[in-house]
Specification:
Elements lengths: L2 E7 L3 H14 L4 E6 L6 H11 L3 E5 L6 H14 L4 E4 L11 H7 L5 E5 L12 H18 L11 E4 H6 L10 H13 L4 E5 L14 H16 L5
Parallel strand pairs: 1-2, 1-4, 2-3, 5-7
Antiparallel strand pairs: 4-6, 5-6
Bound molecules: guanosine-5'-triphosphate and magnesium ion.
The site of guanosine-5'-triphosphate (GTP) has 20 residues, from strand 1, strand 2 and helix 3.
Length: 235
């Protein structure tokens, strides 16, 4: 299966090289696409340099920080245009440990979307405070019971999609940008009747660099679920 790992980056210069090295140990056949939003710490230049040394790594440069959701949409369109069979979403900060890549690659053989789940046996968030766990499980409860999404970890961002699934979704109509983006995508995939499976991951906090998470994207995810549930036609 021809596979692309999409990695959005904003100021990840300290993580990029060690991450790519580990990815190639675990998934040597996969190609990598870095979507950099004009990072101020040289991540974009570093990505260009890696590309010249290894053509398996490609880079999309965008002019400024346009958000994680649109970075993934750009990556998905690239995967479709270049005829990949499957595309991963993966963070650059080592929260998504490359050691799980073989589990995803095995699972995607018999599924349309594989989600790296923190909330199934074998998964977890050992570094998180009780407050952060509560917010995250609140999202889970809302998405599961209000939208009927049959997975335990709807906001998870370590995923592998079959490109056939991405082709069947009208990507230009995705509204959300932050965590809501992950919920919206899994909802669309479910609505189309595709097979979704979860594989356990232990999610650890970033090794180096700063988090870009904000309250705004958490609120966006909650409002997406409520709006979709209580609007007349849904999506
Ligand atoms: N291209 C691009 N990448 C981004 C943007 N915002 C975040 N990222 C990347 O998206 C990934 C996840 O961002 P994080 O800052 O780790 O946010 P998070 O994982 O939601 O939050 P933490 O759990 O606190 O780390 C990282 O690889 C970031 O570099 C953006 O606006 N554009
Ligand atoms: Mg992170």
């Amino acid at each position: 299966m021809k596979t692309l790992i999409i990695i959005p980056t904003y100021n990840e210069a300290g993580n990029l090289c060690p991450l790519l090295k580990e990815i190639f140990v675990r998934a040597p056949e996969s190609d990598i696409l870095i979507v950099d939003d004009n990072s101020t710490d040289g991540t974009g230049e570093l990505a260009n340099q890696i590309h010249t040394e290894n053509p398996q790594v490609n880079v999309i440069h965008r002019p400024g920080k346009l958000g994680l959701g649109t970075a993934y949409l750009a990556g998905f369109k690239y995967a479709i245009a270049h005829n990949y069979d499957a595309a991963f979403e993966m963070d650059a900060d080592f929260s998504h440990d490359p050691r799980y890549l073989p589990d995803f690659l095995k699972a995607i053989e018999h599924a349309d979307l594989v989600i790296g789940s923190r909330y199934v046996p074998g998964g977890g968030t050992p570094d998180w405070s009780p407050v952060r766990r509560l917010i995250s499980s609140g999202g889970y409860i809302l998405a599961r019971f209000l939208l009927g999404i049959p997975v335990h970890d709807c906001t998870a961002g370590f995923r592998c999609y079959r490109c056939e699934v991405l082709r069947s979704i009208d990507l230009d109509t995705i509204q959300s940008r932050g965590y809501g983006f992950q919920v919206e995508l899994v909802y669309r995939v479910m609505k189309q009747g595709f097979k979704i499976v979860e594989t356990p991951i232990i999610f650890v906090d970033r090794r180096v660099g700063k988090s870009k998470m904000s309250h705004k994207i958490v609120i966006e995810a909650f409002t997406y679920v409520l709006r979709t549930r209580f609007s007349r036609g849904g999506i």
